[in-house]
Amino acid sequence: MLVDGAFASAFYLFLAAAASDALDGFLAKRFTGVTMVGAVLDPVADKLLMTGLFGTLAWLGALPAWLFVLTLVRDLLIVAGVIALRRLIAGFRVAPHMLGKLCTCAQLCLTGAALGGLSLLPPLADLVPVLVLATAALTVASAVLYLVRALRLVASRPVTS
Known about the structure:
Layout: H1 4-30, H2 36-59, H3 65-88, H4 98-118, H5 128-156
C-alpha cells in the first residue's frame, strides 16, 4: 500500500492535471484554437486519465471495482459508437451532451474526494459513497442517452443501395 505522502503527491498531480485540462479547454474555446487533432486527443487523454485513476483506486479498494467496470464499459461503447457512426454517416461530428459533461464532472469530483480522503483531507472520504452512487447513475444515464441519440441518427440517415 502506498504511504500517505504518495497519496498526497497523487492528489496534487490530479489537481494539476484537472486544472491544466480546464485551462486548455477554456483557452481553446476562448481563442478558437480548437483543432481536429485537439478535438480527438483531448477526450482520449481525459479518458486515459480517468480510466487510470478509477482502475488504480479500485485496485487499492478506495472505489468499488464494479464502478470501474461500469465506467470502462461506457467509455468503450462510446468509442465504438463514434467509430461506427463515422463509418455510417458522412461528416459525423462528436457532439457532447450536458449529461455526459455532468458524468465527467461527477467522476472528477469522486476521484478528487477519494484521493483527498486517502491523504490530506480524510473527511472527504465520507463523500465517496454518495459520489459513487451519483457517478454510477450519471454513467448509466449518459450511456443510455448516447445510445438513443446514436440509434436515432442511424435510423434517420438516408438509405443508399
